[in-house]
Amino acid sequence: MKGLMQDWQLTTNKILEHAKRINPTREIVTRRVEGNIERTTYGDLFDMSKQVSTALQDEGIGLGDRVATLGWNSERHMASWYGAMGIGAVLHTVNPRLHPEQIAWIINHAEDKVLIFDKTFLPIVEAIKDNIPTVKSFVIYAGADTMPENTLGAVPFDIWIDGRSQNVRWGDFPEDTACGLCYTSGTTGDPKGVLYSHRSNVLHTMITMQRDAIGMGANDVVLPVVPMFHANAWGLTFSCPATGANMVMPGAQMDGASIYELLDTEKVTITAAVPTVWLMLLTYLQENDLKLPHLNKVIIGGSAVPEKILRAFEEDYEVDVVHAWGMTETSPLGTLGTLPPHMLDADIDTRMAQKLKQGRPPFGVELKIVDDEHNDVAWDGETSGRLLVRGPGIAAAYFKGAGGKVVDEDNWFDTGDVANMDQYGTMQITDRAKDVIKSGGEWISSIDIENIAVGHPKVANAAAIGVYHPKWDERPLLIIQPVEGETPSKEEIFAALEGKIAKWWTPDDITFVDNIPLGATGKINKLALRDTFKDYKLPTA
Ligand code: ADP
């Protein structure tokens, strides 16, 4: 027997339609690439987005066509999303931090027809324009007065949409229609496209609106430092208009001073970014003796949060840290570290230890951990294995079948992360499968070693990798990037590790570099490090 309720298709246009009706005066505040502040409302955004839809239709764009953006977080970028998605086109966010050759590769793979971009990226687009034949039109996020000279025949975004009809039908397709495309950064081989559907984006939005997830409301002011090209700004481009929260868009300026200024002047209550951004902000706050009186919550993810960042926010600035884990393939939020009930009265050290873990899955995300034989491991907070994930916001395959079959017969997606789980469902990542250091067949957690090393005041960044050892196969080598002007000794770093990790986890050697290489999403590029140090001779070898 079927239920007798309405068929209300889960399409993303409904999110902005709701914002227009219920919260039309709530704002999107953008720092333009020119530096000035622009204020727009959800009401205006709706109108702009409709005009984008008409502009795209006039270019011949329709159901399933790919529209690419190379853009900072801004209201114009948001209008491109909702404008493309509303008519069933696929909005493809390209990560501008990738190498231009890789950007061209991705655009060709996606067969993008329109490319809309910030003028910061004009040199990239000019450099690749002859290698991206599918792109027929170029639009630059600019007005007539701020339009840069170019050889692309590009039009300014404001002129492109100006005067266009808003009388365009949205959402006239099934909810499983493709909606957005985002490529993983390709730290392992060619980038692979994750193809979100309207349904997956709407359900991910509802999942992340839960109070133990991000849990924002109409009274919040949210600053997504995390870029829209990094897995949908962790869904904030959907959950903010869905709730009516104000958005504050940092544009191209993500240094400590610029972020502080927005947090302060816009009275931001919730913000989100990877740890490197917070390191810059905290340094700026400390140097200038500033406080964060308005901020309630900071979402930190993308890589493990170092203890000194966690403690600085919680103890020095009284900001609640929500440590989150996820990946492009999981829409992206998979777990969030809101304190569970049994931890509320625990002492500060216990609470901080809990928050260093990656958190618990909200309703709508299923996790399990398996050993090499694909058997479940105990949820004892110790036994680690491969982390599998399942749910309506999790990828079932990659665009154009890249990578072959990616889920098992029960639909579980292998994240490539290694983790353990405690009895309360708190997940702790101990490594990425490809980064694991295997010493004598046993796993050593590079993340634990790195976190402790980064806690040392003279250390700016740290990476532990496995290098060849004749007896143990692999042993850890710790690579340290010192804080500028500091020259820590090996002994100081060994002393910092002592007693905090199992003795056999202690790196066999420590080496110092000026710069630890970062990938396009701001994470340590271990592939590059493993290559650089592939012939490293450990003193113990
Ligand atoms: P890529 O895999 O291309 O770097 P993603 O941004 O999708 O792009 O990265 C997802 C991966 O980032 C996860 O599989 C995990 O290894 C790592 N990651 C994300 N959040 C965390 C976290 N809070 N702690 C540790 N690792 C994390």
TrEMBL record:
Keywords: Ligase. SUPFAM superfamilies: Acetyl-CoA synthetase-like (SSF56801). The keyword Ribonucleoprotein does not apply. It catalyses: 3-(methylsulfanyl)propanoate + ATP + CoA = 3-(methylsulfanyl)propanoyl-CoA + AMP + diphosphate. Residues 449-523 form the AMP-binding enzyme C-terminal domain. Residues 19-399 form the AMP-dependent synthetase/ligase domain. Transmembrane segments: none annotated. It is an enzyme of class 6 (ligase). Its EC number is 6.2.1.44. It comes from the Bacteria. One of its GO terms (molecular function) is ligase activity, forming carbon-sulfur bonds. Belongs to the ATP-dependent AMP-binding enzyme family. This is 3-methylmercaptopropionyl-CoA ligase. It comes from Hyphomonas adhaerens MHS-3.
